[in-house]
Sequence to fold (566 residues):
Amino acid sequence: MITTSSREPIRVTDPDDPRIAEFCSIRERDLTGRHGQFIAEGTVVLRMLSAAHAAGQGISAVKLLLLENRMAGLTQLLDAFSSDVPVYVASQAVLDRIAGFHLHRGVLALGQRRIVTDLLPHISALPASSLVLVGCGISNHDNMGAIFRNAAGFNADAVLLDETSCDPLYRKALRVSVGSVLTMPYRREGSAEELLGALGDARFEIWALSPAGHVEIGDIRPGRRVALVVGTEGDGLPSAILQSFKSARIAQNPQLDSLNVGTASGIALYHLARSMGRLTEPT
Amino acid sequence: MITTSSREPIRVTDPDDPRIAEFCSIRERDLTGRHGQFIAEGTVVLRMLSAAHAAGQGISAVKLLLLENRMAGLTQLLDAFSSDVPVYVASQAVLDRIAGFHLHRGVLALGQRRIVTDLLPHISALPASSLVLVGCGISNHDNMGAIFRNAAGFNADAVLLDETSCDPLYRKALRVSVGSVLTMPYRREGSAEELLGALGDARFEIWALSPAGHVEIGDIRPGRRVALVVGTEGDGLPSAILQSFKSARIAQNPQLDSLNVGTASGIALYHLARSMGRLTEPT
Fold:
């Protein structure tokens, strides 16, 4: 039985309709800042947006734009948004002209994240037993998405990004994160030195991940508050960071480039989370 | 000092020049089979192609197409190819019209892989101590590239793919693999059942990786010949495989989707390779 949503969709027939202007040419605009606004794409991310919207922790949905024939299958999900979130629908042809490419998923949302710059209170408020991922200079959106997905998968408490890292709310990073950017607490502000200084003051044990690290990641016996620091692919972490903190490595074939930073974060977080007893295992 | 290559480049001014027809609209053609031919993109992959070409193990370079101003910086690399590999050069405008998009890397090569269907001899010839990654139904090129990059990084002996998996030589998979597809021995043929049957006959210990796996990956004490089996994202491995073989899991937050298969392969391979003593660690 197909039920219809209690929400009346608004039909869009003109790709230049100002009411859906935020969705125009999203592939190009993906690289421009939007003051906390972001584009969520696909059903999975929409579901995470719905959950974050309902939780009222600073993430909200502004408007939705759907392919007309997707309405019926999304009834329950649409009803989870408050009634002041308008739902626009369009034909595939109009939708493709709005987005600027063939949008086969047919599900877009405009969201808004409240911008907060409360790094020090945020760090102080972390639990006594905490696992935090710190990203420095992460410039690739796929890697950013992978980092969030892994942080969520391995029960990290927060992601902290330096100001040179890219915005995790960019459409592609959000999609690769499978929506985790919307549920994982994070901050993006300050320099790496400032972030790590604040974490040190809060008695975090800081481990910089690098192919040149001193301790094999699988051998670390972490304390109660741990920050794992990962850097950009290619250059890796600045030597000032590697010299100032403990460093961990992931043994691999030395003839090859270092691992992808997303994969490396997954391997390291799995180990740390497991060693800290943060992963429940079926018995 | 900039030295010039001993090789005389051939200038292309017409995007429809038949001599470079294989490079036309590569983004669209990425999804079509080419009987073992493939497009390598970027300096890093070109270097791997050069090494594979020199090794004479069935991979060869057919022709190169470069942005004119890249020649000077690539002298050494170009000289590593045999002199019967023509090098075409073009201006940025012509190159972009050939490729069908802005090719800022400016480095393309057409390669050829000898197609071999020798699964059983290949498996028999693996070393007494072997680590093999088996992919079933891997349909996403990014994931395929990540799997090869991890297999190479953690010193696997081979990658075996069932016939439903995508071609690792596709441009994007090759690029994400950082060229590892050109150096890692692999086969793509037969069904998953046939692959695993052959591995079982060759006394491989077979571990299927799944969120529902019975043994935590970090607790496995592997034997001398180990095959790790990973499936497609979303559906995962077919239940017939999970029921027929030992299964391993990676503990994670149960509320979330399973890990990305590329990341999961990295975590599992790191553990297996390390437990098997295949990763040398600095002392």
